[in-house]
């Protein structure tokens, strides 16, 4: 298997991952029913986000957490997100950039979960 090398590779990774998210009984309802994600807009944004992180393209200019802060997420959601991300990427790619993507996904999930816990602690 090849490593992630191009923006097209990132697009393949993102497309495969979010296809799995849509089908997932835990994550799908949050993305589709609660957040009502417009996938035609979201997928290119995610390609820009991951291309910036993994390939240094600088395409992404945003702040991902605020849009997620209002969602009803738990540790189970973050664990499932990481699990699906890892399974998806490992089926498509292998190498140092792939390993970096997995590491970044775990770090993002940990950071988001930490921030969610802080918000919940303030609201109780």
Molecular structure report:
The protein has 124 residues and is mostly helical. It has a single domain (7-122), classed as Orthogonal Bundle (Globin-like). Helix content is 74%, strand content 0%. The longest helix is centred in the C-terminal third of the chain and has 27 residues, at 96-122. The mean pLDDT is 94.
CATH architecture: Orthogonal Bundle
Q: What structural class do helix, strand and pairing data support?
A: mainly alpha
Shape assignment: globular
Number of domains: 1
Strand content: under 5%
**CATH class category label:** Mainly Alpha
Report helical residue fraction: over 70%
Could you list the spans in which at least 5 consecutive residues all have pLDDT below 50?
A: none
Radius of gyration equals 14 Å
Give the ordered list of helices and strands. Answer: HHHHHH
Largest sheet: none
Task: State the end-to-end CA separation.
Answer: 48 Å
How many strand elements?
A: 0
CATH superfamily: Globins
The helix count comes to: 6
Overall pLDDT metric:
94
CATH level-3 fold name = Globin-like
Top keywords for this entry?
124 residues; mainly alpha; Globin-like; 6 helices
Itemize the secondary structure elements and their pairings:
Elements: H1 7-23, H2 27-34, H3 39-55, H4 64-68, H5 75-92, H6 96-122
Please give a quick description of this structure:
The chain is mainly α. The protein has a single domain (7-122), classed as Globins (Globin-like, Orthogonal Bundle).
């Amino acid at each position: 298997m090849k490593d992630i090398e191009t923006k097209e590779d990132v697009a393949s990774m993102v497309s495969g991952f979010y296809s799995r998210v849509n089908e997932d009984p835990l994550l799908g309802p949050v993305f589709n029913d609660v957040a009502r994600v417009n996938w035609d807009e979201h997928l290119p944004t995610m390609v820009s986000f991951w291309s910036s992180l993994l390939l240094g393209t600088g395409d992404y200019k945003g702040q991902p957490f605020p849009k997620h802060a209002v969602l009803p997420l738990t540790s189970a959601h973050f664990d499932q997100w990481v699990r699906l991300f890892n399974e998806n990427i490992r089926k498509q790619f292998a190498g140092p950039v792939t390993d970096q993507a997995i590491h970044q996904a775990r770090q993002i999930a940990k950071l988001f979960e930490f921030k969610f816990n802080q918000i919940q602690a303030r609201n109780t």
